[in-house]
């Protein structure tokens, strides 16, 4: 009996030793791709310790989406997220690459965006297209187009995304001769910033009275068609908005939903609190607002909303840079 207990203890200690802590592996490379809405795609490659079967890796953000881990051969590996770390399970891999999205690496102050993190290795950061760098925490190792490579340490890159503007220049040349009147050639040059393009319109004769009135009539017809199309598009958009928000603005439907969740005994207090908060706010709200109202960490709230979505009680969608959650009413 005593020998059996000793064996069980030794097996437990061996299992614990197979999980490599966050500081026992070596980061080989780290790259970031920053999107215009502030989300960042993280790609991190880690060298594993020998004779291990699991690796615990710290994440660069509390809130992550779409996490996947592969070995050097591209085989997908099982993972388990625990708070701010992810545990990757493997067999004979020497390199592991994890990829995921997170909004926690960026912040915005007015028009200025900032990417900030701490890294033990140089980091390659791909900024949004046409970004203008306004501040760096250190001298970059390399800059090419919209990609900057920063040295290891505390890294900060600030940038702005310029607003597209258009400048249009129109030049009209009129030539006259004979009895047929004159002919006008119009050249229109459109220059958007920061990129540019040139568009040339075909020449339009303006020699006789009948030609002038015909050309003017054609332009009026085109203008009317454009205005009618725009009006129909706006009406369709408003009708779609009314259709999407019809259920969530119905007090009776919200009250029936309240009675439904109060009868569901398998919901925990946080889940019921989130659903009641949505009922009291018209049926939908940003995830961050619900999370702050309940005092929940980002990861806990994210998992809670996923559970509610899987049960068909809420719908999660993206509006601008924020994730919104909306009740699914019958």
Automatic annotation (TrEMBL):
Spans through the membrane: 217-237
InterPro entries the UniProt entry points to: DUF7343, WH-like_DNA-bd_sf, WH_DNA-bd_sf
Organism the protein comes from: Thermococcus guaymasensis DSM 11113
Superkingdom assignment: Archaea
UniProt KW keywords: Membrane, Transmembrane, Transmembrane helix
Domain DUF7343: 269-327
Signal peptide: none
Ranges annotated as biased composition (Low complexity): 167-176, 184-208
Name of the molecule in the record: Mucin glycoprotein
Keyword Zinc: no
Residue segments, region Disordered: 167-214
């Amino acid at each position: 009996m005593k020998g059996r207990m000793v064996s069980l203890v030794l097996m437990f200690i061996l299992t614990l030793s197979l999980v490599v802590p966050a500081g026992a592996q070596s980061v080989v490379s780290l790259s970031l791709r920053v999107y215009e809405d502030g989300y960042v795609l993280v790609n991190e490659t880690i060298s594993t310790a020998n004779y291990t079967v699991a690796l615990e890796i710290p994440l660069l953000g509390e809130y992550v989406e779409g996490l996947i881990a592969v070995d050097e051969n591209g085989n997908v590996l099982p993972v388990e997220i625990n708070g701010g770390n992810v545990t990757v399970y493997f067999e004979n891999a020497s390199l592991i690459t994890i990829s995921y999205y997170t909004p926690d690496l960026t912040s915005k102050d007015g028009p200025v965006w900032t990417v900030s993190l701490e890294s033990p290795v140089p980091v390659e950061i791909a900024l949004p297209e046409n970004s203008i760098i306004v501040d760096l925490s250190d001298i970059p190792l390399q800059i090419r187009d919209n990609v900057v490579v920063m040295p290891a340490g505390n890294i900060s890159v600030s940038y702005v995304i310029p607003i597209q503007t258009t400048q249009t220049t129109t030049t009209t040349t009129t030539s006259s001769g004979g009895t047929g009147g004159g002919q006008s050639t119009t050249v229109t040059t459109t220059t958007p910033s920061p990129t540019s393009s040139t568009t040339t319109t075909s020449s339009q004769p303006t020699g006789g009275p009948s030609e002038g009135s015909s050309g003017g009539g054609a332009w009026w017809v085109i203008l009317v068609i454009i205005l009618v199309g725009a009006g129909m598009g706006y009406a369709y958009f408003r009708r779609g908005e009314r259709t999407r928000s019809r259920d969530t603005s119905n007090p009776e439907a919200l009250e029936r939903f309240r009675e439904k969740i109060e009868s569901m005994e398998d919901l925990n207090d946080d889940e019921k609190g989130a659903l009641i908060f949505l009922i009291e706010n018209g049926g939908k709200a940003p995830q961050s607002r619900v999370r702050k109202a309940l005092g929940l960490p980002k990861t806990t709230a994210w998992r809670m909303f996923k559970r509610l979505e899987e049960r068909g009680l809420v719908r999660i969608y993206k509006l601008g840079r924020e994730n919104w959650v909306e009740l699914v009413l019958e």
